[in-house]
Amino acid sequence: MALRSKILGCGSYLPENCVTNGELAKTVDTSDDWIVARTGIKQRHLAQEGELTSDLARKAALKAIEHAGIDIQEIDLIILGTTTPDNTFPSTATKVQAQLGLTHGFAMDVQAVCSGFMYALATADNFLKAGQGKTALVIGAETFSRLLDWEDRTTCVLFGDGAGAVILRAEESDESVGILSTHLHSDGRHQDILIVDGGPSLTQTTGHVRMAGKEVFRHAVVNLAEVVKEALEANGLSSDDIDWIVPHQANKRILDGTAKKLKISADKVVVTVDKHANTSAASIPLALDAAVQDGRIKRGDLLILEAMGGGLTWGSALVRW
Ligand code: ACO
Question: Residue 50 Cα, ligand 1 centroid: separation in angstroms?
Fold first, then answer.
């Protein structure tokens, strides 16, 4: 028997305001053809004025709670991955905790940019396996549009806003179910290739995203393939055993390149980047929820979740759904 975190349910939320590439091209020097060819992105959802990361997070969380069929009061801990908190402090997680009417347990943010959901999931999994709580709400939520320089066409076309969430429950089991293992990495030497050029300590401003796209691309394909192999080896499995890759949704070409490197068929990759662009920490649970709701992911399927983002940070989780 081993204590494992089982995923009881998932949910997601995208802001109502949907902006197509064509609409964006009216204000930015770009085109639908360029964006689709280089990234696969067709549209993104942007939070309206006054719509906050905590609002998106709460809406996704409520859907996950309903899907899991649990009572809100059963939640012992909330771990929220975000790089776009409502405030510099308090954490967005504590805001969501209050909005859900929870006063017990604890809530905290983790910040690993596009790897935020992997870091949040691994953190929650480890708390549960250590016996520090039984039920966890894990959220990835972003209003990344607030960090964009809308005059920089090399970055602003790539990102969008959204949120996704899962409910984890610690259960003793002799079967290999739930989160089988998580694998996190970072390498701060490469921080400058994907960075926000402001912050409370550095400039006392929020700053904007700056990115050396080609270099990020190269690191992404190599690191993601490696961290998937690491997860498979740790569990004595091979890429043939995988039913679904649920990747961070940055760019269709990164998804294709990683699957090819792993010799996994493109049919097994869950792709939603076309519908919401890169939503940073929100993108894995958004993709997961889409494939669970449309029936592609079924109980018993083997999933590999993976992401890379600023830091650089990257990670994977092998999950028996
Ligand atoms: N519309 C039209 N033209 C553009 C645009 C745009 N939005 N952006 C750049 N261009 C132009 C450039 O100015 C350049 O023109 P030039 O040749 O006259 O100088 C030309 O297009 C080619 O630019 P490149 O930067 O060489 O384009 P590239 O093929 O590398 O694609 C891209 C750029 C899409 C950013 C790619 O490098 C990429 O996807 N990188 C990964 C970045 C990423 O996904 N980051 C997300 C965070 S990290 C993560 O999630 C993994």
Answer: 30
**Statement to judge: residues 10 and 127 lie in one domain:** yes
Q: What is the pLDDT of residues 53-94, one digit of tens each?
A: 999 999 999 999 999 999 999 999 999 999 999 999 999 999
Residue 104, SS3 per DSSP: coil
Contact in structure between 166 and 44 (CB atoms under 8 Å): no
Q: Crossing angle of helices 32-39/252-261, nearest 10°? A: 20
Q: Please state the separation of Cα 272 from the chain's center in Å.
A: 12
Residue 175 has pLDDT above 80, yes or no: no
Please say which residue of 147, 173, 199 terminates a domain. 173
Domain C-terminal end among 154, 173, 192: 173
Residue 209 is predicted with a pLDDT of 98
Query: Of 10, 21, 67, 114, which one is the catalytic site residue?
Result: 114
Candidate from 216, 253, 254 with most ligand 1 atoms within 8 A of CB, to mutate: 216
Q: Is 248 a catalytic residue?
A: yes
pLDDT mean over 108-135: 98
**How close is the Cα of 49 to the center of ligand 1, in Å?**
28
**114 classed as catalytic:** yes
Please state, in angstroms and rounded to a whole number, the distance separating the CA atoms of residues 267 and 217.
Answer: 22
CATH number of the structural domain spanning residue 45:
3.40.47.10
Q: Which mutation among 33, 214, 224 tests ligand 1's pocket best, with the greatest number of atoms within 8 A of CB?
A: 214
> Does one domain contain both 34 and 112?
yes
Instruction: Write out the two tokens for 319.
Output: 């999950």
Query: Which domain does 198 fall in, by range?
Result: 178-320
Distance 145 CA to ligand 1 centre (A): 18
Q: How many domains would you assign to the chain?
A: 2
